[in-house]
Design a protein that fits this description.
This protein is of the alpha+beta class. It folds into six domains: about 5-60, Helix Hairpins (Orthogonal Bundle), CATH 1.10.287; about 80-325, D-amino Acid Aminotransferase, Chain A, domain 1; about 330-430, OB fold (Dihydrolipoamide Acetyltransferase, E2P) (Beta Barrel); about 440-510, Orthogonal Bundle (DNA polymerase, domain 1), CATH 1.10.150.20; about 515-590, Orthogonal Bundle (DNA polymerase, domain 1), CATH 1.10.150; about 610-690, Rossmann fold. α17 crosses α18 (about 525-535). The structure holds 2-(butylsulfanyl)adenosine (IVH). 2-(butylsulfanyl)adenosine binds near residues 113, 117 and 316.
């Protein structure tokens, strides 16, 4: 057998095995045999690159070449769905649709997968490209990453030319597992979106994304089935992964059964009258699904009716999405501004048309970084949904409607908005590396004086701006040496205010070493890691300085929770002259640079537990205080409840988390119970003292 034939046979066998395993969930060959065939094909392909097919099963592992996702036009309209927020609305829509069609209809009910919309294009049964939705007409070519998704077939079982719409998503359990290394990613959808746009497909291959497909568009219309159920059955036969949670609604259960039988598909046969109870049932099972859904989609089954109904500018008239939650805040992006943080990190911020959300008016929302903007494909003028995650800053969650002005995805300018220095890319973020950048310096000072840090409350961002502008302060030690009396006579700075500044400065000298350490601007050193370092033996600054002078990475990494990257970051920062000067200045000012006995971390009573928090609290306001208490005692905290969550701390109010927790058997803990766990009793001064101690202030 010649090599070419051998490669072809290996390819066939591997493709069959991949399809069986990933799409149908069964093994037809052993893992060992699979690896053997795979390695053999890799060997042939590397020795004879001319034999390597673009869609070889070996392309699943991705590549280290970077990709810039060129824009490509869709050949089908990629629209989104109109929405309903109650089952009554869905029933009314079905009735209206049947009326305008002028005949009896059947409908298919699918889950609305909360993932990334993708269109897969095949020519003569061969994968040619995968495009993101983009603005509906033009999307980004993300083929190299999508090819790493094992459930996306690269070769179909028939040589058809077809466009297929589907949703790429990440299962909840896979998200939780990956989250340990990317804690900033809020939900599985965002992680899937980020992965689909990874520059290196080898990195995308490391994330176990999967797909459900739900629409097919045949180039040769004569091949196209005449109803949606048959389309799904055909897609399945072609090798695609179809969501088995399906229901069919028609005038009677028997009629629905007949439709299913004809299409050769399994689904729940139901009558129109069952719709409300079906949606209720789905809502209940939602928490126990392995993936996230954000609603249900009702679609007209008959394709000729679909065609007759047609489309509005934005939506098909033959389908509607039933969304589970009441609408999130929906608003328009007026502009995107760019901020420089205390570490020089650049954060793009969406300036919004003001909108009410969770009891406050939101005008701005974080966009994190360019990668996040790209994954949303967000442009000026787009209509977006905005959410609040925990108690923190609101974030733009999704683009709901593209702008009509033709604006394309926003790109962060490459120079610092404050000092115009060229920006530098580090990991996912851009940085301004000019240490004298005024916004950076002000940010560093404001961080130092913040309530959660040195708690010099009267010297807030506004006062810092003033002190900076008057050239009184350029680095942290200046806060301890500057002559605040110079402010006398300045508008808004009376004697009382000046006295409060001086008092705050004096008071701050009492803050324990752990707080000082977490406030002076060492990278990755927050309250928790400062405690960890101290517990791990760095009980005074000299020990830290010595270890960094000696480049002694092991002195840090021998502490269990300190990784190599954090260690290297701390060492580099402590070797820096400016940091040395800062530390010397603060020492001279009389700040605490060694640990006193009572600052120890409390017992790790929550070690190994995973806690979510909902509602508001009497003793923990803002709610982040409760998270701190949990984390300090060894708990891992999460923002959404999954099978791994062990406890839900539930205050008053709060949303659906309580039901989700109940349905998953997660232990629900009240505030009173939690207080008892912490061993805290009384209110008043006693409690305040206790908190100050345990918060490390
Ligand atoms: S049908 C022309 N079915 O929801 C109709 N969409 O706002 C195409 N989605 O962009 C959409 N699950 O990304 C359809 N079973 C499903 C879906 C689904 C998730 C997404 C899709 C679409 C968005 C609609």
């Amino acid at each position: 057998m010649d090599l070419k034939e051998q490669a072809r046979q290996l390819t066939d066998e591997l493709l069959r095995a991949q399809k069986a395993y990933y799409v149908d969930g069964r093994s037809i060959i052993s893992d060992l045999e699979y690896d053997r065939l795979f390695d053999e094909l890799v060997r042939i392909e590397s020795e004879h690159p001319e034999l390597k097919d673009e869609n070889s099963p070996t392309s699943r592992v991705g590549s280290d070449l970077t990709s810039d996702f060129p824009e490509v036009s869709h050949t089908i309209p990629v629209l989104s769905l109109d929405k309903a927020y109650s089952s009554q609305e869905v029933v009314a829509w079905m009735e209206k649709t049947a009326r305008s069609a002028g005949r009896d209809l059947s409908f298919v009910e699918e889950e609305k997968i909360d993932g990334i919309s993708i269109v897969l294009y095949y020519e003569n049964g061969i994968f040619v490209r995968a495009l993101t939705r983009g603005n509906g007409y033009v999307g980004n070519d993300v083929s190299s990453n999508v090819k790493t998704v094992k459930t996306v077939p690269l070769v179909l079982t028939e040589p058809v030319t077809i466009a297929v719409r589907g949703e790429i998503y990440l299962a909840k359990k896979d998200f939780e597992a990956l989250r340990e290394s990317s804690p900033e990613v809020a939900n599985p959808r965002n992680m899937a979106a980020g992965t689909v746009r990874r520059q290196k497909s080898s990195e995308a291959a490391a994330v176990p994304l999967t797909i459900f497909v739900y629409e097919g568009f045949w180039a040769d219309e004569s091949k196209r089935p005449d109803n949606h159920l048959a389309i799904l059955a055909s897609l399945k036969r072609l090798g695609f992964r179809i969501n088995p949670h399906l229901a069919v609604f028609s005038s009677s259960k028997e009629q629905s059964e007949k439709l299913l039988e004809k299409a050769g598909l399994e689904a729940e046969p139901l009558a129109f009258g069952d719709l409300a109870s079906y949606l209720e049932r789905v809502t209940e099972r939602r928490a126990s699904l392995e993936y996230e859904i954000d609603g249900m989609v009702t679609k007209v089954n008959e394709l000729d009716v679909r065609e007759a109904l047609g489309y509005t500018e934005h939506h098909p008239r033959w389908a509607i999405a039933y969304k589970f939650e009441s609408p999130q805040a929906v608003t328009k992006v007026k502009a995107v501004t760019v901020q420089v943080g205390r570490t020089g990190r650049i954060t793009p911020v969406a300036e919004l048309e003001p909108v009410q959300l969770g009891g406050s008016v939101v005008r701005r929302a974080t966009l994190h970084n360019q990668e996040y903007i790209d994954s949303l494909e967000l442009a000026l003028g787009d209509t977006v949904s905005v959410v609040k995650r925990g108690d923190v800053i609101p974030a733009v969650d999704q683009v709901l409607e593209k702008n009509e002005e033709g604006n394309t995805t926003f790109v962060i300018p490459r120079t610092c908005p404050c000092c115009s220095s060229p920006l530098v890319q580090k990991g996912a973020h851009l940085y301004c590396v000019n240490r004298d950048c005024p916004d950076q310096v002000k940010g560093m000072l404001a961080f130092f004086t913040a309530r959660d840090q040195m708690d010099m409350e009267s010297i807030g961002p506004k006062a810092i701006e003033k002190l900076y502008d008057m050239k009184l302060v350029r680095d942290i030690p200046d806060l301890y040496t500057c002559d605040y009396d110079v402010l006398k006579g300045e508008k808004g700075y009376g004697e009382k205010m000046i006295a409060s500044f001086k008092a705050a400065v004096e008071e701050s000298k009492k803050r324990p070493f752990s707080t000082v350490l977490a406030s002076i601007g060492l990278p990755d050193v927050g309250a928790k890691s400062a405690q960890i370092l101290i517990r791990g033996g760095f009980s005074d600054i000299d020990r830290l300085l010595k270890a960094s002078d000696e480049n002694d990475i092991a002195a840090f990494t021998s502490i269990p929770q300190i990784g190599e990257q954090t260690a290297a970051g701390i060492i580099a920062a402590l070797q820096d002259d400016a940091m040395r000067e800062r530390i010397a200045g603060l020492r001279a000012a009389g700040l605490q640079f060694e640990q006193k006995a009572q600052e120890e971390l409390p017992d790790q009573i929550f070690a190994g537990q995973v806690w979510a928090v909902t509602g508001s609290f009497e003793h923990f306001n803002p709610r982040s205080l409760a998270l701190k208490e949990l984390e300090k005692r060894g708990a891992r905290t999460v923002s959404s409840i999954t099978g791994k969550t062990t406890h839900l701390l539930a205050g008053t109010g709060g949303g659906s988390k309580r039901e989700t927790a109940a349905s998953l058997g997660v232990r629900i803990v009240s505030e009173a119970e939690f207080m008892a766990m912490l061993g805290q009793e009384e209110h008043g001064q006693e409690k305040k003292d206790a908190q100050q101690l345990s918060f490390g202030f």
